[in-house]
Every structure is written in C-alpha cells, then in structure tokens.
Amino acid sequence: MLARNEEAEKAARSVRSIEQRFNRWFRYPIVFLNDEPWSDEFKRILNASTSAPTFFENVPKEQWTFPSWMDKDAARASIKDQGDRGILYAGKETYHHMCRFFSGSFYSIEALKKYKWYWRLEPDVEFSCSITYDPFVEMARHKKVYGFTISLWEEKRTCPSLFREVSDWKEAQGIPSNTLWKAGIDASWVPWPFRSLLSWFSHRDRNGDGWNLCHYWSNFEIADLDFFRGPKYQDLYKHLEHTGGFYFERWGDAAVHSLAVNMLAEPHQVHHFADFGYRHDWYYQCPANAPGGQLPESKALNEAQSTWAEEIPGGVGCRCDCDGRRNRNHASYCLNKLKAPNTAHRPWSTWFLSFIF
C-alpha cells in the first residue's frame, strides 16, 4: 500500500477490511510505501489493524521525482497548465510522480525484490465478501498474470498521445494483435485509403484505429511481478518514460498497465475477480451471494461474520453483505469489452456502442 502519514485512519480501514475478509486466515505480509519517513503513530495504528507481518518502507528519492534528463521548470509549467485546464488530478506534481512510479520502478524496488506476486491496496477501500481461497495460488495454478475487479473509461484528456506511443512501440517490436488487444480497439469505419488521415487525432494509431479508453482500474490489481519486471514491459516503460508523457501529459498507471497487459499477455492470462466485493471512492463491485454457497458450517467464517445478504440465483459471492441485486454502480461497457476474449457470449450493447463510438 502506498500511503502517507496523514492517511493512517483511511489506511487502517482498508487493512481491517481485508483482514476480516481474507488475511486473518492467510496472513500475507503487508508492505507500506511512502515517499517520506513513516511516523510512529502511523505504524502503531496499522500494526493494530492486522495480524499479518507489516513492513514500513520508503520509496527511494530518485524514483519519486522528475527524470534526471527532464527540464523540471518546463515540466512544472506543464503541470500547472494541466491543472488550470481542469484535467483530473493533473495539477498535482506528486500525482505525476506516483503514476510514473507505479508504471515503472515500483516493480523493482528493493522492498519488493523477494516477492513474486502483489495485491495492490489503497487507503479507504472496502471488501464486502469473504475470500475463502488464495488468489495467488489460483492465479499461479491457472497461469494468470493479471487480475482486476473494475474496468472503466479513462479520462480522455489525461493521455492524448499515450495510445499512439504504445501502438508505435508495438509495431516497431513486431508484436501481433491478439484478441485482448483488439478488445481495447475501436476499428476505424473510414474507407481504407483515408484511414491514415484519422491518425492526426488523439487516441488513434497510424492506421486510424482508435483506443476505446477502457482500462483496468489499478487501485485493485493482483498480478505477477515478473510479468512487469520482464524485458518487454520494461522496454516499453523506458520508451514511454523518454517521451515525457508522465509529466507533459498526465499518463495514469492504470492506462499504462492496461495497454501493456492487453498487448503482452494472452487473454487466458487475465482474470476478472467477479466474486470479490470491492469499493474504492464512489465505485463498487458487489457480487450476489451464491445459492448454497455460504458455508454456514464453517467455524472460521462464522467467527468473522454471522450474517450476510440474501442469496440470488446466478450469484457467485460468499457472505457478501452488500446488495447483490445491483452488481455495480458504473457502466458495464468496458468490463464486457475487456472480458469478451474470455467470454462465450457478449452483451449486445457492446456491439452497439462500438458502432456508435
């Protein structure tokens, strides 16, 4: 978890939630990261929130700043301009540092070198279902590299040149387009001789095909660190780093991760945790409880929770206490698009909206 000293209570809420729903049984270590020294108060509050081992680490200063080659004054002027134009979070210098860090050096910092898998936590998140299996073991068993809960549209103005940079790198590397990559693309409807003219517009590649802006919301992700440590992802990151887009635009790590995963992973290597109840900020995913799947005889579960929401036919959750009659409070378009390569039947709306956009 990346957090600051003043976020102790929000961080503790997240840790208490995952402790109740999962880690009380598995006791995976929790690594806290901060770009500043930790306060004793933060450590005290968080240690009291979990039975798991805790580690309080610091992000190296050189990884939480502008690249050494960058004109810092020009970058700060661009950040101010982005903020003045009302681009989401783009006026905050530290937010740019965070997106750059999570896009690249996060995977290789000393504090994480002994780990192969990570589960990203944020302050003030909530898990509303019991997780009765080990997702790391299951992902390894099924050869997955990336797992998510929520998928949304990216805010368009944050990254107008990102897709073009990624697609140019993809073409230069000779990487073929698999069905997962195609799930994030809206093919141009313009006749072939004129398609290249569309490449002048943002979020389009040299052939005029566009990115639909769908991305995995990276405040929750369970992933194989070796996938992101690998030479292909690291080469992509270095390419993106030297364009300056993390500062002269506001490229988010969620968008970077999503385009990279869709390009470099096979569809069967990406997993949607449909049975995880999860909330961050306003957005949530709430599975309905599975009929006959609440394990009322489980002493371990009964010690953690004795009541839960009603079971609903088709539900996949275990002891979820959210209202499973409404699985999510955001549009399902992006989720359906990004799950399509692994789904036998697609909702008709994804085809209809693809035609419109």
Gross morphology is: globular
Taking all Cα atoms into account, the compactness measure Rg is 21 Å
Helix-strand string:
HEHEHHEEHEEHHEHEEEHHHHEEEHHH
Number of strands: 13
Average pLDDT: 94
The computed structural class is alpha+beta
The CATH class of the largest domain is identified as Alpha Beta
Helix content: 25-40%
Structure characterization notes:
By secondary structure, the protein is of the alpha+beta class. It has two domains: 1-58; 78-286 and 328-357, Spore Coat Polysaccharide Biosynthesis Protein SpsA, Chain A (Alpha-Beta Complex). It has 15 helices and 13 strands. The strands form five sheets. Strands 3-10-5-11 form a four-stranded mixed sheet. Strand 1 (30-34), helix 2 (40-47) and strand 2 form a beta-alpha-beta unit. Helix 1 packs parallel to helix 2, helix 4 packs parallel to helix 12 (253-264) and helix 6 (162-173) packs parallel to helix 12. The radius of gyration is 21 Å and the shape is globular. The chain starts with 7 loop residues before the first helix and ends with a helix. Mean pLDDT is 94; it is low at 350-357.
